[in-house]
Protein: Heavy metal-associated domain-containing protein
Amino acid sequence: MIELRIQGMTCQHCVAAVREALADVPGVTQVVFVDLETRRARVDGTAMRSTLVEAVIAAGYQVESEDTER
Structure:
């Protein structure tokens, strides 16, 4: 499981965009959640963290550097 702290989400449309971007990454088996209030996303699967970060950035958002892989 990988958890990311996302910057730049301001509405539910942003949440949906981040969720879709993460779901499209090869190796993602489940986007567990994308939460606007906590600015966190959690993903299950075999995808590399760096690939997830790239997908979020390509969708127009930022990822805080203190993220952890769990």
Observations:
- The chain has a mean pLDDT of 93.
- The two ends are 5 Å apart (CA to CA).
